Automatic annotation (TrEMBL):
UniProt source species: Xenotaenia resolanae
Subunit organization: Homooligomer; upon reaching the lysosomes. Interacts with MCOLN1. Interacts with NEDD4; may play a role in the lysosomal sorting of LAPTM4B; enhances HGS association with NEDD4; mediates inhibition of EGFR degradation. Interacts with PIP5K1C; promotes SNX5 association with LAPTM4B; kinase activity of PIP5K1C is required; interaction is regulated by phosphatidylinositol 4,5-bisphosphate generated by PIP5K1C. Interacts with HGS; promotes HGS ubiquitination. Interacts with SNX5.
Source domain of life: Eukaryota
Name of the protein in question: Lysosomal-associated transmembrane protein 4B
Taxonomic lineage of the native organism: Eukaryota, Metazoa, Chordata, Craniata, Vertebrata
Record key words, sorted: Cell membrane, Cell projection, Endosome, Lysosome, Membrane, Transmembrane, Transmembrane helix, Transport, Ubl conjugation
Keyword Transcription in annotation: no
Membrane spanning stretches: 6-23, 30-55, 75-97
Function: Required for optimal lysosomal function. Blocks EGF-stimulated EGFR intraluminal sorting and degradation. Conversely by binding with the phosphatidylinositol 4,5-bisphosphate, regulates its PIP5K1C interaction, inhibits HGS ubiquitination and relieves LAPTM4B inhibition of EGFR degradation. Recruits SLC3A2 and SLC7A5 (the Leu transporter) to the lysosome, promoting entry of leucine and other essential amino acid (EAA) into the lysosome, stimulating activation of proton-transporting vacuolar (V)-ATPase protein pump (V-ATPase) and hence mTORC1 activation.
Pfam families to which the protein is assigned, alphabetical: Mtp (PF03821)
């Protein structure tokens, strides 16, 4: 119980640091949460690999479930390859969602860390400001290779 409590408190601290870092725009506070996400993704990937390498572990896990688990007999009676495919599909969905969340946190980190530099340009437009673009013909016109003769004389 002590280890579970310590891990839970650590997770609350890491999540709080990420929230504070995003709110106050301190990029260094987001890094521990990003590292945790990468570590969690790696562990889940190892679980998926272990299911592929040792497909009988799914059946062994099902046998260890208590007898009161709903539909335990129906699940155990299914084909082992079908069961492994269903587990891999479920883990694949979880991994893709975790990869999306990792991308979100990384984009947040990049935005916060690049906020003070010129790499991130923020354009604020209102009804009072208008950006005028040149006409299309002028923008795509290719200048001639040789200037006209009147420019050479001057």
């Amino acid at each position: 119980i002590c280890i579970a409590t310590a891990i839970s408190l650590l997770m609350i601290l890491i999540c709080g640091m990420a929230t504070y870092g995003a709110y106050k725009q301190h990029a260094a506070w987001i890094i521990p949460f990003f590292c945790y996400q990468i570590f969690d993704f790696a562990l889940n990937t190892l679980v998926a690999i272990s299911v592929v390498v040792y497909p009988n572990t799914v059946q062994d896990y099902l046998q260890q479930l208590p007898g009161t688990f709903p539909y335990k007999e129906d699940i155990m009676s299914t084909n082992n390859m079908c069961l492994v495919f269903a587990v891999l599909l479920f883990i694949g969905c979880i991994l893709s969602f975790k990869a999306y969340l990792i991308g979100c946190v990384w984009n947040c980190y990049r935005y916060v860390s690049g906020r003070g530099t010129t790499e991130v340009l923020v354009y604020v437009t209102t009804n009072d400001t208008t950006v005028l673009l040149p006409p299309y013909e002028e923008a795509v016109a290719i200048p001639p290779k040789d200037p006209p003769p009147q420019y050479l004389e001057a």
